[in-house]
């Protein structure tokens, strides 16, 4: 019996110190396995006298019960610890953002986004989109717009001149504005027209608000009995929709363009309080576009009779109003192709371009 007591004590300590379920199983087999010491002791019972067998069997069964209970208890402790460790190792922080999938990683450039917004607004007013070439001839970019050679307005525009073309040495330029598409439209087919022209334009200029390539959107409406009220109505409607506020105030300021008469530059109100520019608030003014009634001379250059047809035109810097709407401070950064910049200022492609994402947020 002392031998059994010794073995039982050994087993208890092995069970108590087992650190893994495997080690515990090993300890169990050493007692209760086919070759375990308790199983061996049980086998020896048959050789005893009936009296001794009874006492001995009772003792062995007590030992067996105790050992089994200890094994069970230790097993529960180790199993709980294993679950605990696994939970710790597999913890998920549910507050972390989802990893981006490939199609969510790309961004729409603010210029593309703003072109989408502009076309959406004008499409709702019945305008369609027209386009023209970036490499333009002198006639479409200047002469037909009532800017003859030697006219001082040509110097206003820091033109990029290209090598002359053809036998007659036609002057070629990178278009300095989208207005030549007015000419192409009017010479391309009969009125009425109601078009907008988003596109690239070029001038030799470079600072925080100017880049040699930039974007404009031109507008042209030609019909019978079009007047300045239509111009004002369309541009007012546009500004409210684009800047997403009915509060935006507009100022039509007399101006000069050779291709419009009369001409007006349009300012919107803004505040610069605390160095932050806010559109539609405050009493400062910010110029956003040039406009006017199409000059009869331009209609004549394009083969239209000014007594029959009138209309208005406007031209607006797309990058400029993108900067205003989305608070982007430096125009040059638009064209740096810096992915960190695009990640910050760009738009998620699967978000449908809407007017509900701008200054109102
Ligand atoms: N083309 C002019 C510019 O680039 C803008 C403009 C367009 C003005 C149409 C009047 C009418 O500054």
From TrEMBL:
Its main location: cytoplasm. GO terms for cellular component: cytoplasm. Its EC number is 6.1.1.20. Its cofactor is Mg(2+). Residues 112-349 form the Aminoacyl-transfer RNA synthetases class-II family profile domain. It is an enzyme of class 6 (ligase). Mg(2+) binds at residue 261. It is found in: Cytoplasm. Binds 2 magnesium ions per tetramer. Belongs to the class-II aminoacyl-tRNA synthetase family. Phe-tRNA synthetase alpha subunit type 1 subfamily. This is Phenylalanine--tRNA ligase alpha subunit. It comes from Ferrovibrio terrae.
């Amino acid at each position: 019996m002392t031998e059994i007591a010794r073995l039982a004590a050994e087993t208890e300590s092995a069970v108590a110190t087992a650190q893994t379920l495997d080690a515990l199983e090993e300890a169990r087999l050493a007692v209760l396995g086919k070759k375990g010491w308790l199983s061996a002791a049980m086998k020896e019972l048959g050789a005893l006298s009936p009296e001794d067998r009874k006492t001995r069997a009772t003792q062995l069964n007590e030992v067996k019960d105790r050992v089994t209970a200890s094994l069970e208890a230790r097993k529960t402790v180790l199993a709980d610890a294993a679950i605990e460790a696994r939970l710790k190792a597999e913890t998920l922080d549910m507050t972390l953002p989802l990893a981006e999938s490939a199609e969510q990683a790309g961004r729409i450039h603010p210029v593309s986004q703003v072109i989408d917004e502009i076309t959406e607004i004008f499409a709702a007013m019945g305008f369609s989109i027209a386009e023209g070439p970036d490499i333009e001839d002198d006639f479409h970019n200047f002469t037909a717009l009532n800017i003859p050679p030697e006219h001082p307005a040509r110097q206003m525009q820091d033109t990029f001149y290209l090598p002359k073309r053809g036998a007659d040495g036609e002057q070629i330029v990178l278009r300095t504005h989208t207005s030549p598409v007015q000419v192409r439209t009017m010479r391309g087919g009969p009125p009425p027209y109601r078009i907008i022209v988003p596109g690239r334009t070029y001038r030799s200029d470079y600072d925080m608000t100017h880049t040699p390539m930039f974007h404009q959107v031109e507008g042209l409406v030609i019909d019978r009995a079009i007047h300045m009220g239509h111009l004002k109505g369309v541009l007012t409607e546009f500004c409210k929709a684009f800047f997403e506020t009915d509060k935006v105030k507009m100022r039509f300021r007399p101006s000069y363009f050779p291709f419009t008469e009369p001409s007006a530059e349009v300012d919107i109100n803004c505040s610069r309080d605390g160095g932050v520019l806010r559109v539609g608030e405050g009493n400062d003014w910010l110029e956003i576009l040039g406009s006017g009634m199409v000059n009869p001379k331009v209609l004549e250059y394009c083969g239209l009779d000014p007594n029959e047809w009138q209309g208005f035109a406007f031209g607006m810097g797309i990058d400029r109003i993108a900067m205003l709407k989305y608070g982007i401070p430096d125009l040059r950064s638009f064209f740096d192709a810096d992915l960190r910049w695009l990640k910050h200022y760009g738009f998620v492609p699967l978000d449908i371009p809407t007017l509900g994402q701008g200054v109102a947020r």
